[in-house]
Design goal:
alpha+beta; five-stranded antiparallel beta sheet
C-alpha cells in the first residue's frame, strides 16, 4: 500500500479533546471518532477536482450492461457508450459527486506535537481539556492506515488513485502548525485496543476539582497501564510533567 512507503511514524501520536460526553464515551468504549469530511473545520479539506477520466475509471468502468439485464450490445459498443458518457458529464455533476464523496468519508485526526499552545487552545477547550497519547506499534492494521498530512496550497486535479490519495492527505499551509496525521474510514466509531492508549495529559486550565476523580476512576479501570501527566505554562513555553 502507498502509505507504507511514506516513512516512519512517530512513536506517539496525540489527540486533543474537550472534557465532555464524547471524551467519556471514547474512553469507556475504546473507540475513536471519524468525523464526516464535509464537517471538518477547514472547508477546503479533502477537496479535489474530479476529472472525467477519474470518474470513468472509478465509477463507469465498474458498470456493465449485463449487470442491469442488457445483453444485446458488444463489449466494444459498451465501452464506446461509457467513453462518451464520461465526456458529456458536466463539471457541476462531477463537483456534486465529489461533495457526496466527502459526505461519506470519515476522518480521524492526530498530531505529533503535544507542546503546542495553539493546539491546546483550538482543540482542548482553551487548555481546559486533555490530550490523549496513542502508540499503535502493537496494532499494525490500524497504524498502517495513519498517514502524515502534507501542507500545500496547490490544487489537486484527480486523474488516478495516486492523485486522490494526495488530495485526501493534504491541507493548506495555514494549517501546518497542526502537524497532523490522519486515518480515513467510514464516518463513525473506530475501535482501538486499550493498550494503544498510552497516556493522558491534563491541560493547563483543566478543572481538576470538577473532572479529575471521574476521569481517573474510568481510566484506572479501563486502562491499567496508562500514564498520567499535566501540562503547565512556563516562561519557556509548555512543560509536561508527571501527575503527582
Amino acid at each position: 500500500m502507498l502509505w507504507r512507503i511514506l516513512g516512519p511514524k512517530p512513536k506517539m501520536l496525540y489527540k486533543f479533546h474537550s472534557v465532555n460526553y464524547n471524551l467519556f464515551d471514547l474512553l469507556s468504549t475504546n473507540s475513536l471518532w471519524a468525523c464526516q469530511a464535509s464537517k471538518l473545520n477547514d472547508p477546503y479539506d479533502c477537496d479535489f477536482e474530479m476529472t472525467a477520466k477519474y470518474f470513468k475509471a472509478t465509477y463507469l468502468d465498474k458498470i456493465s450492461f449485463a449487470n442491469i439485464g442488457v445483453t444485446k450490445y458488444s463489449e466494444a459498443k459498451e465501452k464506446e457508450f461509457f467513453d462518451i458518457l464520461a465526456e458529456v458529464v458536466s463539471p457541476e455533476a462531477l463537483q456534486n459527486l465529489q461533495r457526496f464523496y466527502k459526505f461519506n468519508l470519515g476522518v480521524c485526526c492526530f498530531t505529533q506535537e503535544i507542546r503546542s499552545e495553539l493546539m491546546w487552545s483550538h482543540y482542548a477547550d482553551a487548555g481546559k481539556g486533555v490530550c490523549l497519547g496513542f502508540g499503535f506499534r502493537s496494532n499494525p492494521i490500524l497504524e498502517n492506515k495513519i498517514v502524515r498530512v502534507n501542507y500545500t496550497n496547490k490544487h489537486v486535479k484527480v486523474v488516478d488513485e495516486i492523485d486522490q490519495f494526495k488530495a485526501l492527505f493534504k491541507k493548506r499551509k495555514a494549517w501546518s502548525y497542526e502537524k497532523e496525521w490522519r486515518l480515513l474510514e467510514k464516518p463513525g466509531k473506530i475501535l482501538f485496543d486499550p493498550r494503544d492508549l498510552k497516556s493522558i495529559t491534563f491541560g493547563p486550565r483543566f478543572d481538576a476539582e470538577k473532572h479529575m476523580a471521574s476521569l481517573l476512576t474510568l481510566c484506572r479501570r479501563q486502562y491499567p497501564y496508562l500514564k498520567y501527566y499535566v501540562c503547565k505554562y512556563t516562561d519557556d513555553g509548555l512543560k509536561i510533567e508527571p501527575l503527582d
